[in-house]
């Protein structure tokens, strides 16, 4: 089989010999405990892949990369693969070397696991690491959840099916959005304050501004609920934010640094049951379970408790191979809420349709649901 020449990099040039030789010829696979998978080629060759979880946001130091590279050279085929879930995969040609790589990685403090019925990975955006509009520190939330869910990654506690978790520092969702089993999205708890002195930097130049109708000013248009209105007072402009209409989506802040939120009023929405794959009942967006709950660093006990609670309900009651969303669909949302421990809130959820922007547009109900959750879970 020839390699396509239109690839962005010269694939053939950089592939390990055994992968190049068996490109597209793999016919069989076998698991050897958590985190080690064997692939058999029609040529009779075999490779063993070892999956290791990286820190949140897949950040590693040059020092760690060097240690990984040494392991790949010593026991593997001299190459590493970074996965979409933010893990690293080592490849080797014998089970003995695969077990050695696993042992060495665990000695370095990196858990190995994450295939089949397991936690496959926790993705987070960069948030506080480099992003100026982050509501919460997605990375440290990822660490707290990862510590609590580690046994589900390493296979110590098997799960019914694949579990993926995305954590986004704000509703922009750079971490991968909400088509995932459990999505955690940073959300402000109150509308922003406008810094008048910075506002002109986000507006067209005065001459152009004079000719544009108020409703067509970009900053007014970005607000999805019409909470921002602009009126002219002589040659000056006045931007007003109507708090009751604001859903704290942060879109104005994404587009203009004149919007400031209270750093003490931060939280997250927790959504469940999404997926990207086309197996089972097909792809879907996660649905809002908790519209807003405060984010309390450093260990985020409330968020971690809810995530673990949901995973356990699914683990103990789902059929083998049933993803979280398929499980919820089979038993029905009211029954799921009963199992989560908030049956009295079912009526509130009736008003939250299964829609992409649910967690934004129905945030007003978030307070009611949060109180119900706080009392019940
Ligand atoms: S999801 Fe939000 S906080 Fe995270 S990197 Fe993207 S814009 Fe920044
Ligand atoms: S946070 Fe969202 S809803 Fe509120 S004013 Fe800004 S854009 Fe509008």
TrEMBL record:
Its EC number is 1.8.99.3. One of its GO terms (molecular function) is dissimilatory sulfite reductase (NADH) activity. It is an enzyme of class 1 (oxidoreductase). Residues 237-264 form the 4Fe-4S ferredoxin-type domain. Keywords: 4Fe-4S, Heme, Iron, Iron-sulfur, Metal-binding, Oxidoreductase. Belongs to the nitrite and sulfite reductase 4Fe-4S domain family. This is Sulfite reductase, dissimilatory-type beta subunit.
């Amino acid at each position: 089989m020839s390699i396509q020449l239109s690839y962005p990099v010269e694939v053939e040039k950089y592939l390990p010999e055994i992968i190049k030789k068996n490109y597209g010829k793999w016919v069989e696979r076998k698991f050897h405990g958590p985190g080690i998978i064997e692939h058999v080629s029609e040529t009779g060759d075999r490779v063993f892949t070892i999956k290791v979880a990286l820190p949140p946001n897949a950040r590693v130091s040059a020092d760690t990369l060097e240690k990984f590279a040494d392991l790949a050279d010593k026991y593997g085929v001299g190459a590493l693969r970074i996965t979409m879930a933010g893990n690293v995969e080592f490849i080797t040609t014998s089970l003995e070397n695969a077990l050695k790589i696993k042992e060495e990685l665990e000695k370095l403090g990196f858990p190995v696991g994450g295939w089949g019925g397991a936690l496959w990975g926790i993705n987070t955006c960069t948030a506080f690491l480099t992003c100026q509009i982050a509501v919460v520190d997605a990375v440290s939330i990822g660490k707290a959840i990862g510590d609590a869910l580690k046994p589900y990654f390493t296979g110590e506690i098997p799960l019914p099916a694949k579990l993926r978790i995305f954590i986004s520092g704000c509703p922009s969702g750079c971490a991968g959005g909400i088509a995932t089993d459990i999505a955690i999205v940073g959300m402000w708890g109150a509308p922003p304050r406008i810094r008048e002195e910075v506002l002109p930097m986000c507006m067209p130049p005065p001459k152009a501004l004079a000719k544009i109708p108020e409703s067509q000013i970009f900053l007014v248009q970005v607000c999805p609920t019409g909470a921002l209105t602009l009126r002219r007072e002589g040659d000056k402009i006045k931007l007003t934010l109507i708090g009751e209409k604001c859903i704290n989506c942060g879109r104005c802040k994404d587009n203009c640094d004149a919007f400031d939120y209270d750093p003490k009023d931060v939280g997250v929405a927790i959504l469940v049951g999404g997926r990207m794959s086309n197996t089972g009942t097909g792809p879907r967006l996660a649905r809002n379970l908790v519209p807003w709950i405060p984010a309390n660093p450093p260990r985020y006990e409330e968020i971690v408790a809810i995530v673990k609670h949901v995973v356990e309900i699914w683990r103990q009651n789902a059929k083998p191979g049933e993803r979280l969303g398929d499980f919820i669909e089979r038993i029905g949302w009211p029954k799921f809420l009963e199992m989560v421990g908030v049956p009295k809130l079912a009526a509130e959820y009736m008003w939250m349709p299964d829609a992409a922007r649910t967690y934004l547009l129905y945030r007003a109900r978030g307070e009611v649901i949060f109180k119900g959750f706080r009392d019940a879970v």
